[in-house]
Predict the 3D structure of the following.
Amino acid sequence: MSDDPIRLVTIGRMLRRRWRLLAVLAVVGALVGYGTSVLFPPRYTASASVLLPGQWEERELLTQAEIAASSAVVDRTAATLGWRDVSAEELRDRVSAEAADGNIIKISGTAETPERAQRLADRLAQQFVAFATRVAGGGTDPEAASGPDALRQQVRETNRRITDLAEAADPGRTVESVQARTSLEKLRTALEEAMKKLDQADPAADQAGMVVMGPAARPTGEAPPTRTQLIGGGALLFFLLAVIGHLAAARVNRRPRTEPEIAAALGAALLGTVDVPVERHTHRPGGRGPRAWTRRLLGLDTRWDTPTPQRYADEAATRVRYRRVCARLRDQLPAPRRLLVVVPDSDAIARRAAGQLVAEAGRDPAPSSSRSSSSKGCPTLRVVEVPVSRPIVPDRDSESGALIVLSAGHCTTGELTGVAEACADAGHEVVGVVVATTVRTRPPRTADHPPKNATPALAGHGHATGGSA
């Protein structure tokens, strides 16, 4: 697993190299969202407001909102509506109520059409007011509901009786009559204060005054999620999943990317890094058929997580790298001999680097008698392509050693180990590793002179089959 942090440049590279695939997946997500909107028809939501006069605490308002959305109110509403296609259980899922500012309970209902949504909200508000008033009045017991009224009537009768007794008493002629009139007035005042406190403590006095603040407004737009929201949400979801999938695949990528890691996986010495000039899309692998065409169209035939190629310096600097690799290879071998250049069959960059390396080795002159006895010529190279899934290297015959050429990040550690084992199984010692990197070429020349850095044809190309070379 890679421990490198995910940077914005990595995301930008992915968007630039995989934009076709991401666009296709976004379109697929939009189609999925559209199909979801077809399966679930649009719905509309209407709201009605109920005013609660008097002083109410916040928890009391929340209680009233719960009552408005309770099954008792919804069942009564369903009975009055008489909708045969919607049951009371389904209607409970379409109803909601919340406490708003200013002692207002906002009741909402959702239906398939604006007309039915408006009618549902109005009936819910009416049934809520009726139910709340009925509960505040003492339930369904007529005697309990008439108890406060009977008490008020008795108080009024008592006041009249007190007035009659006060008039019948001797008006101020004796001390006893004055005391009696004073006691009667005190009794009248106490009764009036008791009735005021009773009225203030009666919850039905406030709840009986609940008012529906007009009919619900007919909705003009669909309730969320709308068809547009489903289509946009599906496209965004698929796009984000594709991006996350690419980043997760990059995090768990086990392909060695640095020269020391590649050399360690192959168990050989690193001879150097060479440059391969490429133009845009020239390093795409070939292939025929609908599957290969689809991969090229979506950009899946090339890796997106490889670094952007650096600018091409010049032909002289590029040839210097190849000559240095040949020099290290010549110094490492005790005597000139023939070597196999092992290249992964799907690595087009390594294939071009191997061809250039073979051509550069062919330019190295053989040792002459004027040179010292210690001078050695460059070994003769022959390119062999092997499949990394099941690598098979030709048996040792005229060649006695293998030079592995590959590009960074192309093979996993297990695949590199398999190539090294295949070389050892064929009797070839891995004498070194060469890593090929891509560089961007300059714009095409306008003159008639051909470029000097034309890559020569592969020398002595062989096939990855068993047996003698």
Summary: Residues 259-440 form one domain.
